């Protein structure tokens, strides 16, 4: 696959900095109207979980999707920040001993290792609930109907039929329930699990950018096709990293899927077939953006970035 141009990496870095400014402002110590107090320890843990690195790919998708329609500004940034809050909450909870039991995230101790399990759980809870506070608040969009649609989209992506459901299916596949033996999943079952656990929030980034920009139904359909292909590509690339990458580069433990007997497309199909599918998904993602012409070049590069990343 072709290399990612340096200007894309610079573009992504600029987005990371901009999103972090918004997140830092949102995680202020002063309570909002209706709040009584923001306990320092929870705020500190939220900041640690959300601001200690990360690619900010999900808010990046919100920002760049909205930009296709000439929409930028505070509301778009807040929408992206809300989506990132949900993503970061999921990482905090996934790392807990009851879930994936990880000690390292983004090259640093996981939140429950830096603080403690109770604080990590509460920080994750706070990040999740705050995401919907951000979306429901008027500074995100003047039209209440738009805010409601944003809330509904993120709820569906992150909840029972999305990320949470996908995490439960993933734990079940590891043999965490029942007789304790890992399940031998088909590729169809793996694709559904991964579309829920990982792909749903990436797809939501494209959907939410289109919603806040007032995109047409046809344009939304194209962006949803892009988002689905991107989500599947992201997971295959992630599974390849788990098989091949150095933990010091990735910033988290690797080789855990094989150790747990977890079913992935890489393990089911083999690395060569997985890489072939990855290339097909990048091509599909790029093709989905054809109606947008050169305006979508950054999103095309994002698909290549997802496939070629080393962490």
Automatic annotation (TrEMBL):
EC class name: transferase
Keyword Translocase appears in the UniProt entry: no
MF annotations from Gene Ontology: transferase activity
Keyword Transferase in record: yes
Record Pfam families: polyprenyl_synt (PF00348)
InterPro entries named among the record's database cross-references: Isoprenoid_synthase_dom_sf, Polyprenyl_synt, Polyprenyl_synt_CS, Prenyl_diphosphate_synthase
Residue intervals passing through the bilayer: none
Tree of life domain: Bacteria
PROSITE patterns per the UniProt record, alphabetical: POLYPRENYL_SYNTHASE_1, POLYPRENYL_SYNTHASE_2
Cofactors required: Mg(2+)
Assigned keywords, A-Z: Isoprene biosynthesis, Magnesium, Metal-binding, Transferase
Enzyme Commission no: 2.5.1.-
PANTHER family (UniProt xref): FARNESYL DIPHOSPHATE SYNTHASE (PTHR43281:SF1)
Assigned protein family: Belongs to the FPP/GGPP synthase family.
Entries under NCBIfam families matching the protein: FPPsyn
Protein known as: Polyprenyl synthetase family protein
Organism: Flaviflagellibacter deserti
Lineage: Bacteria, Pseudomonadati, Pseudomonadota, Alphaproteobacteria, Hyphomicrobiales
């Amino acid at each position: 696959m072709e290399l990612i141009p340096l200007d894309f990496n610079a573009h992504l870095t600029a987005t990371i900095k901009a999103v972090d400014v918004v997140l830092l402002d949102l995680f202020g110590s002063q309570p909002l109207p209706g709040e009584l107090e923001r306990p320092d320890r929870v705020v500190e843990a939220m900041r640690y979980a959300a601001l200690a690195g990360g690619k900010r790919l999900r808010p990046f998708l919100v920002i760049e999707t909205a930009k296709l329609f000439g929409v930028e500004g505070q509301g778009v940034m807040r929408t992206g920040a809300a989506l990132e809050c949900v993503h970061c909450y999921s990482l905090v909870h996934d790392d807990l001993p009851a879930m994936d039991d990880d000690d390292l995230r983004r090259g640093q101790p996981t939140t429950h290792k830096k603080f403690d399990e109770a604080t990590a759980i509460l920080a994750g809870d706070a990040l999740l609930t705050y995401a919907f506070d951000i979306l429901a608040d008027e500074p995100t969009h003047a039209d209440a109907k738009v805010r409601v649609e944003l809330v509904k989209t993120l709820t569906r992506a992150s909840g029972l039929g999305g990320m949470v459901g996908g995490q439960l299916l993933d734990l079940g596949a590891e043999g965490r329930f029942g007789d304790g033996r890992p399940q031998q999943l088909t590729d169809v079952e793996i694709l559904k699990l991964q579309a829920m656990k990982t792909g749903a929030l990436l797809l939501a980034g494209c959907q939410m950018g289109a919603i806040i920009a007032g995109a047409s139904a046809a344009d939304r359909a194209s962006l949803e096709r892009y988002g689905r292909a991107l989500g599947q590509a992201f997971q295959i690339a992630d599974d390849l990293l788990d098989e091949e990458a150095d933990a010091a580069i990735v910033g988290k433990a690797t080789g855990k899927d094989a150790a747990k007997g977890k079913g992935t497309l890489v393990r089911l199909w083999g690395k060569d077939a997985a890489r072939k599918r990855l290339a097909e998904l990048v091509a599909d993602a790029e093709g989905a953006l054809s109606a947008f012409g050169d305006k979508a070049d950054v999103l095309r590069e994002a698909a290549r970035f997802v496939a070629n990343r080393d962490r």
